[in-house]
Amino acid sequence: MKRIITALTLLSLVQGFIGPAQINMSVYAEASILTVGPGDQLNDAFGHSGIRIKDPMIQLDVVFDYGRYDFSAEGFYVNFAKGKLDYQVGWVNFDRFVSYYTAQQRRVESQILNLNPTEIQRLFQRLQVSILPQNKTYAYDFFYNNCATKIKDDLVEISENAIQFLPPEEFEPLTFRELIRTQVPLNSWGGFGIDLALGSVIDQKANLEEHLFLPSYLRDVLETSKFTNTAKNAVKKTEVLNQTQKPYPNSFWSSPLLVFGILSILSLYITLRNYNSGVRSRSLDVILFSTTGLIGVVLVWLWFATDHTATAYNYNLLWAFVFNLLLVPTVVKHKVNLRVVAYLKFLILLLFLMLLHWFTGVQSFNIAVLPIWLALMFRYLYLIHWCNNNLNSADQ
Asked: Cα-Cα-Cα-Cα dihedral of 320, 369, 79, 48, to 10°?
């Protein structure tokens, strides 16, 4: 009688803590890469990837996927902020996998790989080992160790002939930041937050293989890739399992550019009134110096006190200057001194340095920073004017 192994039986076998189940795949087995479109939340905006193992002879049809996490886990957000978050690999029945993302209106594509039975068997055993309790957890890295790069590593490891990753037509290498922006709109709160938190290290060009941290690029590159020595295409067949793709939510009327633009106009209006009346709005100065200082504290913490590699050398600190916090007690007062004027001139220099970094390509800043830059520049210039006038009056 033909042996029948269901997905439920597979689970009971691999959870026995004694090692991977010894299941021999038939010659009809297939391995596929499943690519899921982006979701409407920032954590889902980059899509998802999975490996489907199917063998009709033993009634096996499961999907293994990396990048699982639990928001409710103790210390999740703290560990995420520190860059110490562990993700997991797991598996699920194929029908359930597709139904889940179909319900979210996310496109699902399948690429059947051109693997021989030995390679499929090797891949299946490798995945079984990976989901054992002692192996399923791994240290997450957004660019180098995520749901797509782990699959790329699996394919490289099990292939008898090395995979030659070839670029799609009209491929142009992008920086890591540009790659992120292909998935998250620049003028969105997610895009602004990413550009604010990640430093200039992601403004370097990524090579072809480094593009594969995005599931969509893994899909596109696999489509044109080949196995060396055999000249076989990496992908044998491509099909769409779910066509519907919900667009990423993005509205200009609630965008950071509009919000900061309005706040900048308000700041400029108050500054103009101050100039005409010869006074200084201390409340505005407290808000500007405390806000930029606090943002600077967060950016310094991300750079020096966490394990995140992408938050280093962040030149947003040129406008979100951490030492602005120290000036808050001074701007609350009426009296000023020469040191304040010198400090304000230094802040203006930092703002020009920020533009220099932007124009020379050292770091690309989010477009929503422009109104912030303008508001700070005009306010600093006015404060220098006001301080000089008050110092002259005091001398007389």
From this structure: -160
Cα gap 104→42, rounded to integer Å: 14
DSSP annotation of 307 reads: S
> What is the SS3 assignment for 29?
coil
Residue 53: what residue type?
A: I
Structural contact between residues 226 and 234, judged by C-beta atoms closer than 8 angstroms: yes
Tally helices (H) and strands (E) across the chain.
13, 10
- CB environment 266-288: b (16+ within 10 A), e (fewer): ebbebbeebeeeeebbeebbeeb
Q: What angle do CA 306, 294, 311 make, to 5 degrees?
A: 30
> C-alpha dihedral over 320, 321, 324, 325, to 10 degrees?
80
Biggest CA–CA distance in the chain, Å, is 107
Q: Nearest 10 degrees: CA dihedral of 173, 175, 178, 182?
A: 50
Q: Helix, strand or coil for residue 28?
A: coil
Angle between the 189-197 and 282-304 helix axes, to the nearest 10 degrees? 70
Q: Count CB-CB contacts under 10 A for residue 186.
A: 20
Task: Tell me how far apart the alpha carbons of residues 377 and 181 are, in angstroms, rounded to a whole number.
Answer: 27
Task: Pick the closest to residue 300 from 318, 290, 319, 314 (CA basis).
Answer: 314
Chain centroid to CA 376: 28
Calpha distance 238→32 (Å, rounded): 9
> Which phi-psi region, left, alpha or beta, contains residue 236 (left: φ > 0; alpha: ψ -120 to 50)?
alpha
* Radius of gyration in angstroms for the set of CA atoms belonging to the chain, rounded to a whole number: 27
Per-residue confidence (pLDDT) for residue 5, from 0 to 100:
44
For residue 365, count other CB atoms closer than 10 A to its CB: 21
Provide the whole-model pTM: 0.90
CB 86 within 8 A of CB 100: no
Residue 200 and residue 187: Cα distance in Å, rounded?
19
Ordered by where they begin, the domains of the chain are 7-171+208-242 (3.90.1720), 252-395 (no CATH)
- Residues 43 and 74: their CA atoms lie apart, in Å, by 19
pLDDT digits (tens, 9 = 90+) for 327-381: 999 999 887 778 899 999 999 999 999 999 999 999 999 999 999 999 999 999 9
What DSSP character marks residue 135? Answer: T
